[in-house]
Prior knowledge:
Blueprint: H1 2-67, H2 70-80
Amino acid sequence: MIHTRRHELLSNTLMVLGVLLIVAGIFFTVWLRSSIKSLQYRLGNLQQRQHQLIKEQRNLTAKKENLLSITNIDQVAKKMGFDFPDRSKVIHVKEKS
């Protein structure tokens, strides 16, 4: 009689532990899939941001090249009143040695 009670108690305990392990496994699987979906969503947002920043970088590089072009510098210099001097207007300054 004691042997059967121990056997029943042991089998009931193992059954409860088995059910708990199955439930915990299901919750872990759901949590893991949810985490993966969340990371995929964040990765997609980061990739979109990266594409936007690359486009912005290309635009800024193009603007920089335009601003540093010789024709643009010449136009700005003429607006400010600068001009290439004639040979007669050039003064050479020598340093004392």
